Every structure is written in structure tokens, then in C-alpha cells.
Amino acid sequence: MSKYKREIVSYLYQNDEYLSGQQIAETLNCSRVTVKKVIDQLRKEGFQIESISNKGYKIASIPSIWQEDIVNIELKDNALLNQAIVQTQVDSTQILAKSYINEINNHFVVLSDEQTKGRGRFNREWSSLKSKGLWMSIVLKPDIAIQKMSTFNLFISLAIQEVIEQHYNIQCKIKWPNDIYIGNKKVCGFLTEMIADTDGVHAIICGIGINLNQTQLEFDKVNQSHATSLNLENGKPIDPYQFLTLLIKAIEQRYDQFLNLPFSEIKALYKEKSMIWNKTLTYTEGKKQIVGRAIDIQDNGFLTVISEDGNLHQFMSADIEI
Ligand SMILES: O=C1N[C@H]2[C@H](CS[C@H]2CCCCCc2cn(Cc3cccc(F)c3)nn2)N1
């Protein structure tokens, strides 16, 4: 985006009132002709910009694809995650995030409208239709021992679950360790990778994929009969910027708890928001496959499963067949 285009988008986006061409030109130290050209260009890119004579210009709506400047305006007041790298298409935000880890000292967010090689657990393909979901990776750099990482995903899953439930009024449950379900349909997957050595954790790369605005037809096309989107569940389009802002704030709060509280402080809430209790499920961890029931989650985040023969098993993570 050209210098003036970025500045005019930011200036208009941060002002609710109408701004005259003259006012914009003077503030940004450019000509009114440049302002008019940029406004015309922005309209071609999908910005809806109202213009009323004797009043000026005002952004009515922004295009569905992420705008890096607008994302960074939305995140700029956050204490922790206030810097974002935004792309239209990447192989995977996890890959791009890892490539920036040594270049960016702080924590940061990577977003993309589309992923061509989105990956879930066990390197499963992750469908990331353009501008239909939140495809995001968050890089955090805590000073913690590797052992502490066993509960990180649990705190993050609560952040995601509470945004969906509290702000969109959609009942959803956590399927330990990496999914959020609405009823019997997946709406979100998240996974945590880390870069660590004997000195401890160097960086956490948490990848989150949330289905926001897919239609049923779009799921059928990619054979995702057991997937749903927030739009399908509450019947109206989800504003990706609003969702992103709410989620990042919730993640910051839960991350602060992760750093300062033991998991036992939130265990009761986690268990209440989880869906894996009192069901006979098949748990697979590596070559180990157990049919049984989850009966508890330990303070270290491990799941306790009682198998049909009455034996207890501890899983750090598992692929659970519902
Ligand atoms: O490449 C990337 N990965 C991360 C980032 C952004 S997207 C994100 C996906 C991470 C998913 C990891 C966990 C997982 C869950 N599941 C089950 C499932 C399947 C289909 C839909 C659904 F909601 C849940 N499979 N893996 N970049």
C-alpha cells in the first residue's frame, strides 16, 4: 500500500466524523488531487467511502480481506499482542510466524486471509478458505521452563471458548486438547508449537483456526460434514476485526493467568466447559489406543482415562474419537 494510501486509510479509520479533502491534504501534507486519487483507488479495492459535499469523506465499510494498517490500529492499545504481520495468502501462518521469530523481539501476531498449506495436528490438512475464517498464529516469548508448557493450550482454549460463548452467545465446548465444538460440529482448532532448548522456552507459536463465515455448501465442497462456522450458528455474518480484537484481549488475559496462576485455579471452569466427560471415547496417543472414559484432568494438564478393564491411563495429548 503506498505511503499516502496507508496514511489516508489510518486517518479515515480512526475518525468517526467526516474529513474534508482539504483537511486530509493538510494533515498528511499532500495535494487534494492525491487525496481524490487515493479515495478512488480505495473504492476500487472494496472500501465503501461515503463522500458528502461540504462535509467530506468517511469510511462506511472496509473490504473483507485483512488490511495490515487497520489490524495494527485495532491491536495498538494491547499490552502484549500489539504488532501484526498480515498477508493475503501464505502457505501457513505457523511457517511465516516461525520465520519472523528472530527478526521481531516482541510478541506478535500473524494473520492471513488464506492458507495454501494450512496444517492441523498430525500434519493434517487444514482447510483455510479465503476470508472465511480466522487463520492466525501468535508468537509469545515467555521466560518459563519447558515443563510449564503442558497446560498452555488449556488456558488458550478457555480464551477462545469464552469469546464465542460470551460475545456471540453461542454455546460451545472444548474438546481436549485442541478443538472447540458447537454441538457435534468442529468450529475451531488450535495447536501449540514451541522453540525451546535446555535453558527453557524461547518462543511459543500458537496456531488458531476458527471458522467464521463459511456456508454449509462450502463445507460440503471440502467434505467437512462435521464442521460448522459461527455465521451458520448465529445466522449473521461475523465481523473478523471485531472477533480478532475480542479474541486477542481474551488470550492476553488467559496468558497472564497461565504465567501467574497454577492450572488448578481454572481447572473447575475448564472441566465445566469441556465435552469429553462421561462418554466412552477412543483415545489414541502414538501407538497406544485405549477405549475408555475421561474422568479427570490433572494439574499438569494430563487427562486421566479409565479404560474398560478398570485401569487408569494418563494422556498428555491424544486424538480422541467422539
Ligand atoms: O497451518 C496452520 N495451522 C494453524 C494456523 C492457523 S489455522 C491453524 C489450524 C490449527 C488446527 C490444529 C488442531 C486441529 C484440530 N483438528 C480437528 C479439526 C478439523 C477440522 C476443523 C476443526 F475445527 C477441527 N485438526 N487439527 N496455521
TrEMBL record:
EC number(s) reported in the record: 6.3.4.15
Binding site for biotin: Q115, R119, G120, R121, K186
SUPFAM superfamilies (UniProt xref): Class II aaRS and biotin synthetases, Winged helix' DNA-binding domain
Keyword Transcription on entry: yes
GO molecular function terms noted in the UniProt entry: biotin--[biotin carboxyl-carrier protein] ligase activity
Catalytic activity, as annotated: biotin + L-lysyl-[protein] + ATP = N(6)-biotinyl-L-lysyl-[protein] + AMP + diphosphate + H(+)
Keywords linked to the UniProt accession: ATP-binding, Biotin, DNA-binding, Ligase, Nucleotide-binding, Repressor, Transcription, Transcription regulation
DNA-binding region, residues: 21-40
Record's keyword annotation contains Ligase: yes
All copies of domain BPL/LPL catalytic, residue ranges: 80-259
Signal peptide boundaries: none
Pfam families: BPL_C (PF02237), BPL_LplA_LipB (PF03099), HTH_11 (PF08279)
PANTHER family: BIOTIN PROTEIN LIGASE, BIOTIN--PROTEIN LIGASE
HAMAP family: Bifunct_BirA
Function: Acts both as a biotin--[acetyl-CoA-carboxylase] ligase and a repressor.
Family per record: Belongs to the biotin--protein ligase family.
NCBIfam families recorded: birA_ligase
Stated name of the protein: Bifunctional ligase/repressor BirA
Organism (species): Mammaliicoccus fleurettii
Gene that specifies this protein: birA
